[in-house]
Structure formats: C-alpha cells, structure tokens
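Lab notebook page, bench 4
Experiment: in silico fold of construct C2
Operator: M.H.
Input chain length: 264 residues
Purpose: comparison with the prior construct
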Amino acid sequence: MRLSIDVELDYHLPQRAAVLLALEAAQTPDQRLVSDKLIVGSDTPLTPIPAEEGIGRRTWTGGEGRFTARYEAVVDVEREAVDLATLHTVPLGAIPGPAVAYLWPSRYCESERMKPFALEQFGNYRGGAQVVQVAEWTRANLEYRPGCSDSSTTAHDTFHEKKGICRDFAHVMIGLTRALDIPARMVSAYAWDLSPPDFHAVVEVYLAGPGGDGAWYLVDPSGLAPVEGLVRIGVGRDATDISFMTIFGTANLNRQRVWVERSA
C-alpha cells in the first residue's frame, strides 16, 4: 500500500522557545520511505537526532513569533495481517534488553495499579490471546470522546472514567498488557482511513511467532484505523516519548492539518 502524507503546523511562539519535532515517518522493514521532505519556517537551524529505539528521528529547532512546519512523504507499507491469538508470550527470562523497559510502569501507564483487574479479567487466557482480549475489552468499554482528557490524564484515570481519545485508549491497553508481564509500547503514527484525519496513537506488543522469535506487533485499541494503513513515526513508553511537537516554552495554535491518502 502506497500512502501519501501531508502535514502542516502553524503556531505562534510569544517568546523565543526551543522546539523538538517528531514528524518524519520512520524507515522500518514493513514501511519504506519513497520520499520525504521537512520544511520549517524558522530562523533556527534544524538539528536531527535519533529517536527512541532508533525508530524514526526527532529534529531540534525553535523560534519566536510565527512558527510553521510542513512535512510531506510517500511511504510504501508492506505489512502482513497477523492473527495475534496464534502468537505466544516470550518467557520473561528471554525478553531482550531493549524490550525490558516496556514491562515496567511509566508516567502515564500505571500498570501496577491495574494488575489485579488484568489478572482477574484476562488471567485465563494465554499468549497472544491475552493481547486480543485486552484490545477488545478496551475497545468495548471505553467511549471515544474528544476533549474529555488532557495532558495529565493517565491510564488509570481513563480506566475509571471509561472515555478518552486514541492516546487514552493506547495508555489503557499498555497498562493492562504490562500488568500481564507482556512488553507493550506506544506508537505515534500516521493513519490511513482515520476520520477525522489527525496524528494517531496505537500500541505495539512484544510476542513470539511460530518459530519462537520475539517481535513487535501493531494493535489499534481504538479500532479507528486499519493496522495495514499505519505509518510509524516513533515509539516510546507512553505519550511522554512520542509527542509530535514538544515546545520548551509557550505557544498558541493557529492551524494544524494532517492528511493521509492512499495512492493508486
């Protein structure tokens, strides 16, 4: 599937501020960058740096007054459909170092507080079937409601309020999955067929295939976008690590647009 991505950001920075962008699509085995271009309207030079796990990259810049960024990309996504229920958990002693951090609680995913419920609700399932059940429970029991959460809302908050946006759905699924001793991380993505178009947050879980090798598998707990049409931007422990734009100061939004189209 070939996808065309077009992003426009338009902000006002009242005072000079540093800005860390994470807009560029990552180059991974199942998504190939055909072309991309990032243009920032700022007097501050662009300084690219590696992102978490070496997936994608961030770019330092900054400015004062009007701040704009435009990102365009063409990406070929070749991702086979996987029945997660047929996969297995990786024994704790065999989980590799980079994945271990995604077993632990994090700022927005208090998995230790969710463990009693996770064991009671999903303890009778094993392997990938547990992950499937967590995703289905999250989708069935949370209401998608824009504007009902903010940057301080955690997985535990959403678990009790039973409403949120894609960020909150992902946090709840991550919290429950980690509570079952399965590594789970958050993914920022561009999503084809997402309505309304926007940046999207989904989940990756670390499971073992038929050959026993561990790998990361994408899941959208909100059910708003097909997995085969997701383009990863970056990964991390939770929303702290995957923000598309971090402003070290204050800013006012003028306009923002995200558009993803499937090419012929």
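Observations: Helices lie at 97-100, 111-122, 128-141, 155-161, 166-179, 239-242. The first strand starts at residue 2 and ends at 21.
Next step: discuss at group meeting.
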